[in-house]
Specification:
10 strands; three-stranded antiparallel beta sheet; alpha+beta; 16% helix
Length: 173
């Protein structure tokens, strides 16, 4: 009976220790903000891609962040926009998103994207600009999408790929 009780207590302690300990590589790479985001926002270099690689043998953990700049709304708010591609796992898989911060570098929310070639490339006149030149022919290279933020953060963005067809991306916090 004592051995059984001791074994149960030891299992509970080991489980609590394992689940309580989070290594840097086990942090959720899709959660913002964290120090990588703050590095990019603080440096404030429009168009610069930053690569943060914490991969280990057989396990990818790489984040690519590009600061696109600031967007101002008609009501005077300013948002900072960063694109993000996170490679993870042993394949690797990837997540892509547009992440929005306020003018104090505080996380506001994100738009999740499928492929990285769908991400916007720049900001022009308070609009996210999506060009389809780097899609490898999947999308019409002459299509250029512009999403305005002048009336605030859009709840959804439609990005055309070809023949008025494309993807709809929703804002979430």
């Amino acid at each position: 009976m004592t051995n059984r009780l001791l074994a149960v207590v030891l299992c509970m302690l080991v489980s609590a220790t394992v689940f309580a300990h989070k290594s840097p590589s086990s942090r959720n790479p899709n959660k913002a903000p964290h120090r990588d985001w703050q590095t990019v926002l603080t440096r404030n270099k429009v168009g610069k891609k930053y690569v943060f690689d914490r991969s280990r043998k057989g396990q990818y953990n790489q984040t690519e962040l590009t600061y696109l700049g600031k967007i101002k709304t008609n009501d005077g708010r300013t948002f900072k926009v960063v694109t993000s591609t996170v490679f993870y796992g042993n394949s690797p898989a990837a997540t892509n998103k547009v992440v929005v911060f306020n003018n104090k570098n505080q996380y506001v929310g994100k738009y999740m994207f499928g492929a990285d070639f769908n991400l916007p490339r720049k900001i022009v006149n308070n609009q996210l600009v999506f060009d389809q030149k780097d899609t490898g022919g999947l999308c019409d290279p002459t299509v250029v999408n512009r999403i305005s933020f002048e009336d605030g953060l859009p709840k959804q963005m439609f990005v055309e790929c070809r023949n008025k067809q494309g993807e709809l991306y929703s804002f979430s916090d």
